[in-house]
Design goal:
With 325 residues, the protein is an alpha/beta fold. Helix content is 28%, strand content 26%. Strands 3, 4, 5, 6, 7, 14 and 15 form a seven-stranded mixed beta sheet that branches. Strands 10-9-8-11-12-13 form a six-stranded parallel beta sheet, sandwiched between helices. Strands 1-2 form a two-stranded antiparallel ribbon.
Amino acid sequence: MQAIRMYKTGGTDVLELEQIHKPVPRVGQVLVKVKSISINFADILVRRGHYPYMPDFPATPGAECAGYIERVGPGVENFTAGQAVLVFGKPCYSSYLAVSQERIFPIPPGVDLDEAAALPVTYLAAWHMLHTMRRVRERETILLYAAAGGVGTAVLQLAKLAGARVIGLTSTDEKARFLREAGCWKVINYKTENVLSKVMDCTYGQGADLILDSVGGEGFKDNFRMLNTLGQIIWFGISGGMPRANILKAFARNPAPSHTVSVFHLFSIIQNRPLLRHSMKNLINLLAEEKIKPVIHARLSLLEAGKAHRMLEEQQNIGKIILHP
């Protein structure tokens, strides 16, 4: 079988395609023949050595994939050979996985495996930011960073289902056109437009009710100038580095704006097994009912993992990139 292995951190050249032995499922495990692997920006952070939870080396990247059960190990219940499943939380840049039955979810008949593989990380993050941390309401306005990315497109679809309005930030005219066609209420190209003035104009000077910031960095402080009274900022990414803002100073403005700042990390959901399984089941049902549909930007071979990483790093993608072993 083939797998991507990393022996050190660095550029895309550290992603090495190797031939290794096919694993044998142990007690409580199944052997999955992988068909679709979804990549995330977290994979890039691991490769660079900047992820908060680094694996031991040598390591295989990845956190989500879909395929078919080839064999079940002793003690496995409710799963059978030939069944289509989604795997979440297991290094998955490989053609086979031996994985605990606790980390797999059945895929209903007729669901596309590429779309299923693209579901867990981005849609779980979107779902829990909108419905667990915020409990978003109809007609609320959401300011969304990186709106054309994997999490961004998931947020847009789930926000529309909830009746909320999304102001999407993006970097190219092509992505802006896509977002408008996908139902984004307002779109702002942050490379060519003044984000602060545009947000305040389209909200009639009120600001957004919810800001979802995956960037952080120097511009994080600007969020407080674009947030409505009783509004909330959820910070969930570091593509621009750690936030640089005096939050206490922002809170102490007079009159006090009554803002909330939250931090979201998917590990908090993964550690809550009942909540994870409940929300994952909801999302799989929405996918099967065609109420959500992951946006697939490109499908590449496992050998092209480095190319896929570069596409994400250079922000070429609209939605997700899938690898096929």
